[in-house]
Amino acid sequence: MKYIVMISLFLLSTFSVQGQENTDEVTKQELLETKNVLFPEAEAVVLDEQINVLFDINNYDGNYVVGHEVKRKVKVYNSTSLDKVAFRVSYFVKGVYKEDAVIEEVLIYSLQGNEIVKRKLTNKDYTLNKEADDFREWTVTFKDIKAGSIIVYRYTKVSENLDVLPQWEIQGELPKIVSTYSLRVPEYFTYQMYQYGQNKIQSTEKEEDVRYGGSLLGGSKVKSLVKVMQVKEVAAFEEEAYMDNVLNYKDQVRFDLKTVKFPGMKEQEVLVNQKSFIEAFQKDKRFWKNIEEDKYYRKLLNVEELQLKNELDRSAELLAFVQDKVTWNGMYSIYPQERVKTAFYKGTGNSADINMILVSMLRYTGIEANPLLVRTRSAGKQRDWQSVYFNTLLALIKVEGQYYTLDASSKQSSLGIIPIDNLNDEAVMIKENGVNVSLRLTPTILSNRQELYQLSLSAAGIISGGGVYTYDNYESIFIRERMNQAGEFFFKRGLEYTLGGARISALDFKKQTTASVNKTRIAFELSKANATFNFGNKQFINLFQFYDVKVNPFESLERKFPVNFAYPNTYTYSVQLKLPEGYRVVELPSDKEWKNQENGLSFKLKYTDKKETVEAVLLVGKKTVEIAASQYSKVREMYQLLFEKLQEQVVIERID
Fold this sequence. Notes:
Blueprint: H1 2-11, H2 28-32, E1 44-57, E2 64-76, H3 82-85, E3 87-92, E4 99-112, E5 115-120, E6 126-129, E7 135-140, E8 150-159, E9 168-169, E10 176-186, E11 189-196, E12 202-211, H4 214-217, E13 221-234, E14 252-260, E15 268-269, H5 274-282, H6 285-292, H7 303-306, H8 311-325, E16 327-328, H9 340-346, E17 348-349, H10 351-364, E18 369-374, E19 392-399, E20 402-406, E21 426-429, E22 437-440, E23 447-457, E24 463-472, H11 473-498, E25 503-513, E26 518-528, E27 533-535, E28 538-541, E29 563-564, E30 569-578, E31 583-587, E32 592-596, E33 601-609, E34 613-622, E35 626-627, H12 632-646, E36 650-654
Parallel strand pairs: 1-10, 16-17, 23-30
Antiparallel strand pairs: 1-2, 2-8, 3-7, 4-5, 4-8, 6-7, 9-14, 10-13, 11-14, 12-13, 14-15, 18-19, 18-21, 19-20, 21-22, 23-24, 24-26, 25-26, 27-28, 28-36, 29-35, 30-34, 31-36, 32-33, 33-34
């Protein structure tokens, strides 16, 4: 990668745009400011942001590359906001397109007495993540920085990927006084610009002759487009609870490569429409050859035995087989990294590698199976067709006229139950010959979560007993992935925190996965002291003190964006509490039921006094995946009422 780094030494220094402020200039007046005039409530503000994107020639092979320089000047008004000031720089060191990144400088300005003091961070202050074989990420965090300081940093990236230029994220966690995006592109390349959001962009364009490659190549000048865009007074993006992805709503600008035409050559259309893209995919012989190849696994499958099973059971068994044999490397793709049999032998591969192996095995055993192109939730929804619209590949089978999705890259998935990140709008099934099928991956199947507690209360206010949690469908895959990521120790600690400091023991975790079932069961014993409030001979007990959501997520009066629950679901919370000997219930909260047919929300709460025990059961239904912001008032109404009821106490007293 040194040859890419080499050109970054002069690549960006050749590009300057009149009218841009020098971010390195920090004044005493700026340091003395205690509150921003435009954003008085902000704890930190980006005073100036400059993003420069330009082309140059890689001296190593003579191909064009894209340079990307980011400069920011950030004023810190409150030192508690330093987590928002931290930044990351990620890049790929392997794969189709290689990249490199350098943090050029990080400077911290502050006042000591009447003097401006500048402190420079070094590489020792940065963290480089090398966990993935083909991916790197620099992280810069800030500690011990007092309020009033100004941070100025600059980093550069160089990439061989010309298909998509670095995106201009106009909105971020911090408000911005001014943000400028400057672009210089040789006339050989044309790009389609997509602008999203409400901020008004001021823009200028001009042409100039540029010599690419620096003095090392010294080629002729090339006519180039220089475009400068700027926005001012940009408010911070305010994230709301239960959003599918903030990227779907932030103000941003992106550029996709549209055409390429070098002198003496025919123009090549890159940004084709979806129809042309699918047709080209169908004709990709190397892609389909990976699916047709089956010699590497034939001896491992007992086809005769498999074909004795029905198609759903057979598919579930093959899914489990691939999940066991190949582990996902964390990379999404619609193309195999190498040959898929290489991934099989290595035991690791990207999402396309793994699911193409599965498609191949399903076909080999007589099941109608095809690749399914998907765009993940984490990638955001694209409102316009683009060449990178799809970013991952799953398997799709058709059994008795019904489609089922499979994702072997997740070891927690099952037949028709795939990771939540895949549940993002439209997907397209690809067939090498025949009609392709568009599918919506928005789930319609109901997922259920139940939390059941059998508890006893002592006269000293100690609650003890057991809890059993059961999950199915998407609730099941969600909790499995959560536990897999955390590990048993940290999962247990997180559970104790959720249960208000209760001590957990005898934690037992079981899962059941078949063609028709994806269930998870967690059982444990618990003990919690000071679980009640005593007053005289009475004890006040909140039977919902173990409810996992402690704060109402819908407190705000208004909402800008849709409420997205990812999948339809129901939640049951049931607790039976045995009273201390010699106690009786003297006050029980009232029951309550609320339902809205239009948005699919409902809850039903019921208390029961059974003399020696008291019981509370809560049923919450969220039958609609997404609720429009225009219906938010009803969402807020339900949650306000629900959380008011969850605060109510059962009162018991000692019988004299």
